[in-house]
Design a protein that fits this description.
The complex is a heterodimer of chains A (110) and B (117).
Chain A lengths: L3 E4 L2 E5 L4 E7 L3 E9 L5 E7 L2 E5 L2 E6 L4 E6 L8 E9 L6 E3 L3 E6 L1
Parallel strand pairs in A: 2-11
Antiparallel strand pairs in A: 1-3, 3-8, 4-5, 4-9, 6-7, 7-8, 9-10, 9-11
Chain B lengths: L3 E4 L2 E4 L5 E7 L6 E7 L6 E7 L5 E2 L8 E7 L2 E6 L8 E8 L8 E3 L3 E5 L1
Parallel strand pairs in B: 2-11
Antiparallel strand pairs in B: 1-3, 3-8, 4-5, 4-9, 5-6, 7-8, 9-10, 9-11
Classes of the chains: A mainly beta (110), B mainly beta (117).
């Protein structure tokens, strides 16, 4: 079983829909990242959070440390949001190692 | 946000040759850089952690003699794939930590696609 599980693996939505991507992890963590990877491969860091909720534009990320679960929400989705969204957890302790989920492929149709 | 560049963005080489990939932090100093490998439809896998001025720390199963990492300055780390073989064909991504704390954000390079013929 992977330490970081994402669901769904694939998600197709119509423009304007509200999107939720989930991430569950089984290890103790000090922080969690949400990343966006476009078809060309480049990765953009969307959020890093260790508690509560963060918002940036149409993107919202939440984390529940007790339940070892995080969600990424996209409001008013747009075709340009189409990408792979990756959850990565930073292990507790002094190392910097990130463990990645397999990603969720989001396709937003016009 | 901070910018990390990689060069080249793609490379095709013959089996047995060596390939060097550069990772640069353009507007910040990075004491720690990370090298990842991503196979098609797979998640990123950490290969090694590169610390400026010291030897890299390799993950289990990654051959240090095959994947040479040099972090000679606070803005540059290089990964050299020695005697490359077709199974080394992959997408190589670096990232840089913007500070001394693991809670500092990591910034990712655009990746280098290596194809070994």
């Amino acid at each position: 079983k992977n330490e970081v599980e994402q669901s769904p693996q694939n998600l197709t939505a119509q423009e304007g829909e509200f999107i939720t991507i989930n991430c569950s992890y089984s290890v103790g963590i000090s922080a969690l990242h949400w990343l966006q990877q476009h078809p060309g491969g480049g990765i953009v860091s969307l959020f890093m959070l260790s508690s509560g909720k963060k918002k940036h534009g149409r993107l919202i990320a939440t984390i529940n440390i007790q339940e070892k679960h995080s969600s990424l929400h996209i409001t008013a989705s747009h075709p340009r949001d189409s990408a792979v969204y990756i959850c990565a957890v930073l292990s507790g302790g002094s190392n910097y190692k990130l463990t990645f989920g397999k990603g969720t492929l989001l396709t937003v149709n016009p | 946000g901070a910018v990390v560049s990689q060069h080249p963005s793609w490379v095709i080489c013959k089996s047995g040759t060596s390939v060097k990939i550069e990772c640069r932090s353009l507007d910040f100093q990075a004491t720690t850089m990370f090298w990842y490998r991503q196979f098609p439809k797979q998640s990123l896998m950490l290969m090694a952690t590169s610390n400026e001025g010291s030897k890299a720390t390799y993950e289990q199963g990654v051959e240090k003699d095959k994947f040479l990492i040099n972090h000679a300055s606070l803005t540059l780390s290089t990964l050299t794939v020695t005697s490359a073989h077709p199974e080394d064909s992959s997408f190589y991504i670096c990232s840089a930590n913007s500070g001394d704390s693991p809670y500092n954000e990591q910034f990712f390079g655009p990746g280098t696609r290596l194809t070994v013929l």
